[in-house]
């Protein structure tokens, strides 16, 4: 058996599981955000928050299934989403203050770093998978 040949017969389960944990934390962050927003001051921002999180959840769910299949392109997409998730802390509404803002910030950073770690692991394994296919 060649060096990376076993990758041909198993899924990329660790990064796939980390991406699914991202989905759970992102949903948790959405609940904190919606509970912390003052509806009379936020207005249309609530719709933006909900639509962004629905889009991210769908995109990351597709990413999780593709990452399990060693897709190098989707691993890079996951890295981009993870960086975007970390940068979202700069767009938290100014109407959210106190402990809720801290919970939102921590959940955004935690989920972003989890997705970055998952994508970096997946990029490494996907390159090995491509090598195994060529052998």
Total strands: the figure is: 0
Please trace the helix and strand order, writing H or E for each element.
Answer: HHHHH
Mean pLDDT: 84
Structural class: mainly alpha
Show unreliable segments.
none
Please compute the radius of gyration using only Cα atoms: 17 Å
Describe this structure in words.
- The protein is an all-alpha fold and 135 residues long.
- Helices cover 78% and strands 0% of the residues.
- Helix 1 (13-36) runs antiparallel to helix 3 (45-68) and helix 4 packs antiparallel against helix 5 (98-134).
- The longest helix is centred in the last third of the chain and has 37 residues, at 98-134.
List the helices and strands and how they pair.
Blueprint: H1 13-36, H2 39-42, H3 45-68, H4 72-87, H5 98-134
Helix pairs in contact: 1-3, 1-5, 3-4, 4-5
Pick out its properties:
single chain, about 140 residues, mainly alpha, 5 helices, about 80% helix
Short description:
The chain is mainly alpha-helical. The protein contains 5 helices and no strands.
